[in-house]
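tokens incoming
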């Protein structure tokens, strides 16, 4: 399965400590969804399923960053059971401008949603090639030979204002019958401040009829909480960046952000065999053996991942090159 993903290297990236002023994806935001699985009985109205309970995705806004002087939200992706979620290494960079949501890809922002539109309007929007990884009615069908960006259209069938925790939010309902072969992505409903309620970027025009379809469950930030399925447990478990907590706790990289030399430090009996450096798109940059330092002088500014392999297992870390 192809991962590590959506946005590519960009001109300038800084981590900043202030919260974004936008209503979309502030630091600490959590989206929780149950994904499609091949087998299993399904009940779309409740959480009562057989094999559908152990395939979850959480999206978490971990920081606010600057891309070419524009404040954006960095959303990281975690998958697993509802009680044990681990990082996939994937991340999404988004921004909100005048009630419109954009995602970053190849140094360019593409429109995801426009909450300024009303019933009868047609919205032209985009999704990355691997949007199916985050869809609810399909498995990953990413084909690197296809276009890296999908351009689609959706018609707003109706809108309504709903009150959540004392705040009025716009809910857009899209025409589910509007689709032609030129449109690769379907939209169903989208809520202001939350985004799409069926797949992070939408759903494929052709999806799997069998198996257990997924379901958007809930969203939560420091201001309000929205639950789509009333009887579902919306408790967000602690998420880790490795299947092996021992490795994660005893391997560190510094400084981070880094300007020149990145150091890998271990504690206890951990022995590093090798490590690999990947860029934000998952492209392999370098492989190193039996070294505890790495020169980043040849890297462009941006986000990178380091997969560290040891005799005890593997762990992934993320670092920022200034």
């Amino acid at each position: 399965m192809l991962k590590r993903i959506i946005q590519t290297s960009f001109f300038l990236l800084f981590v900043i400590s202030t919260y974004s002023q936008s209503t979309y994806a502030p630091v600490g935001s959590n989206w929780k969804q149950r994904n499609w699985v091949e087998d299993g009985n399904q009940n779309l109205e409740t959480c009562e399923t057989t094999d559908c309970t152990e395939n979850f995705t959480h999206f978490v806004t971990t920081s606010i960053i600057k891309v070419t002087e524009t404040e954006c939200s960095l959303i990281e992706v975690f998958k697993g059971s509802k009680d044990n979620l681990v990082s996939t290494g994937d991340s999404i960079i988004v921004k909100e401008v005048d009630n419109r949501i954009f995602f970053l890809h190849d140094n360019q922002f593409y429109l995801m949603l426009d909450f300024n539109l009303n019933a009868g309007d047609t919205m032209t929007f985009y999704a990355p090639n691997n949007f199916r990884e985050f869809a609810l009615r399909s498995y990953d069908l990413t084909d690197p030979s296809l276009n890296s960006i999908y351009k689609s259209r959706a018609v707003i069938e109706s809108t309504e204002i709903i009150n959540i925790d004392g705040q009025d939010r716009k809910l857009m309902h899209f025409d589910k019958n509007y689709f032609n072969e030129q449109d690769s992505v379907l939209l169903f409903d989208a809520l202001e401040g939350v985004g799409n309620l069926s797949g992070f970027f939408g759903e494929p025009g052709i999806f799997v009829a069998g198996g257990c379809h997924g379901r958007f469950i809930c969203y939560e930030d420091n201001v309000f909480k929205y639950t789509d399925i009333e009887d579902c447990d919306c408790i967000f478990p602690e998420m880790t960046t490795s299947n092996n907590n021992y490795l994660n706790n005893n391997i560190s990289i510094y400084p981070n952000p880094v300007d020149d030399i990145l150091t890998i430090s271990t504690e206890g009996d951990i022995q590093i065999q090798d490590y690999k450096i990947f860029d934000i798109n998952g492209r392999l940059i370098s492989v190193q053996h039996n070294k505890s330092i790495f020169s980043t002088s040849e890297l462009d500014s941006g986000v990178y991942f380091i997969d560290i392999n040891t005799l005890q297992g593997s762990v992934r870390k993320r670092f920022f090159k200034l």
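note: Confidence is low (pLDDT under 50) at residues 1-21, 44-52.
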